[in-house]
Amino acid sequence: MPMNVRRVLLLLSVFCMAQVAVAQTRSGSAGSKGQTLLPAGEAPSLGTVDWLRRMHAASRQRTYVGTFVVSSPTGNLSSSRIWHVADGDQLLERIEALSGAPRSTFRRNDHVMTFFPEDKVVKSEKRENLDFFPNLPGAPDSTIGEFYDVRLLGKGRVAGFDADVLQLAPRDGLRFGYRVWSERRSGLVVALQTVDVEGRVVEQSAFSELQFDAPVKTHALAQMMGNTAGYRVEKSELERTTPTAEGWALREPVAGFKPVNCYRRALDGVAKPERTMQWTFSDGLASVSLFVEPYDAQRPAREAVMTMGATSTLARRLSDKGGDWWLTVVGEVPPQTLQAFAQSLVRTR
Q: In the record, which residues are listed under signal peptide (predicted)?
């Protein structure tokens, strides 16, 4: 998947998707459905973890339709239309790209299908851990407060809705900071700015139009998702594994980042899944993925570090007595964080 497409889909999940095993808000913040709607003029007094859990829960418990825009200081601009339905234990979405190549992405819990009408191709995959914001691990004793401080900056207004404006400031240079607009009554994230260590905005996203409790039918989205007539369906199968089984380890952990999962998979839909390892880490907000595959001398690639918006990519050749490997590290973090992962990765067999 092209990096600009991947980043757009990642940012879509900032607003649209939370993982199934979400930690509920603490007592006092939760109502009969796990989320209290606050009076319009009242801002909750919460700690770092509680603010994030409130925003996290809102994306699971509200149904809405909206249009949002993603932009960066370099002039990149993307927009999409979202239909998001929360129906008991079922989460369904339709995400229609309004810019770039035509594509429609449907999500039903952990099942994701992306339709490319120009190529008449549907890419289907299961994702146990969907990227979203905030990406809380779900444990009540989350350590995210050790690496970020939260401060209520004041009030704002996005797409006609009153919002609490928060600042999530990192305590070191390994992660970005965030300014978040959380809809006052529900807690839903309606705008987000990613900022670097000097406070400069590197990427921002916001709803330009939003309607809560829109009349979207679960069965209608499910029918659209299942209508693959005339398309070639390409399934991406992930096989769970461990870094130890694949012969890899980190010499030293990168502060704050915990391993989330590890799979064998294909990077380009062509290579055999057993040839590529994907090892993913998260600090509770940002995520980093390490892709390792045998180096192919017939397809030489350039070593590089690239940045687009908040996403950085590092590509490097690794060599040891066991052979040559190609490492790709991708994350919504500063480039030095990717360097820390690359320098710590070692072959164990």
A: 1-23
